[in-house]
């Protein structure tokens, strides 16, 4: 290994240390509550060292968000590789996203902040691109399931593209997450189980595509069975939430506020 290669490796290792130190600090005080100087003290580096890695706080946020993207991508790739019918796998993609949000709320809040227009526009193009690349496997996992379903005759896309199907599910998920995390908004509209509603909307979306087998969106028995099988075969390292038996288990609560 040349001296230049060693310096490059050490630079990358230090950057990872800084990013994980920032995640620890964000879990304690929130990203908006921390400064670059705070992070330098927490990580025991000079503030100037941080700026050798990140031109601005927004670039740091992109790097922090990428960590969560890799976790979500890995979870969705597990679902894509699961030996199950395509319809169950597509619903399981939604469940894996909810499981990610419930178990990694800090990463999810950072993602919401990173994609806000004012923040996104201030980050460098290289950091934005790197962040997008870490999330690309999520879309690839969904698209692989669509391809599998088409090949098996479970669905005929007609005028739709596989990317359209992936985008439809993603926008429903992100929209509901945004509403759930806007304190008091759903309560004002008397929506008590938003993720149960989201699960039914997934079902209606797939039914509209005539994705076989078409199921009753109000029948929760198959979702219970899917959840139990997922945790037994795919997410053995994630415990299903205690209490209610369906996707509504994943309503986030204050107990998860500072979890990572």
Plain-language structure description:
This protein folds into two domains: 53 residues, Arc Repressor Mutant, subunit A (Orthogonal Bundle), CATH 1.10.10; 190 residues, Tetracycline Repressor, domain 2 (Orthogonal Bundle), CATH 1.10.357. The radius of gyration is 20 Å and the shape is globular. Helix content is 69%, strand content 0%. It is mainly α and 260 residues long.
Please supply descriptive tags for the structure shown above:
69% helix; 2 domains; 12 helices; single chain; mainly alpha; 260 residues; Arc Repressor Mutant, subunit A; Tetracycline Repressor, domain 2
What is the CA–CA distance across the termini?
A: 36 Å
Share in β-strands: under 5%
Overall SS class: mainly alpha
Shape call: globular
Number of structural units classed as domains: 2
> What's the CATH C level of the largest domain?
Mainly Alpha
Mean pLDDT: 90
Summarize the structure.
The protein is an all-alpha fold and 260 residues long. The protein has helices at residues 3-29, 36-43, 47-53, 57-81, 86-103, 105-114, 117-122, 125-152, 162-180, 185-188, 194-208, 221-233.
Topology (SSEs and partners):
Blueprint: H1 3-29, H2 36-43, H3 47-53, H4 57-81, H5 86-103, H6 105-114, H7 117-122, H8 125-152, H9 162-180, H10 185-188, H11 194-208, H12 221-233
Helix pairs in contact: 1-2, 4-5, 4-6, 4-8, 5-8, 5-11, 5-12, 8-9, 9-11
